[in-house]
Amino acid sequence: MQRKGANISLKGYDDIFSTDQSRAEAQQERVQEIPLSELHPFEGHPFRVVDDEEMMKTAESVRDFGVLTPAIVRPDPDGGYEIVSGHRRHRASELAGKETMPAIVRDLDDDAAIILMVDANLQRETILPSERAFAYKMKLDAIKHQGERTDLTSAQLGQKSWAVNQVAEQSGDSRVQVQRYIRLTELIPELLDMVDTGQIKFNPAVELSYLASEEQQDFLSAMDYAQAAPSLSQAQRIKKLAQEGECTLDAMCEIMNEIKKGELDRVTFKTDSLRKYFPKSYTNKQMEDKIIQLLEQWQKKREKSMER
Question: Which residues form the signal peptide (predicted)?
Answer without folding.
Answer: none
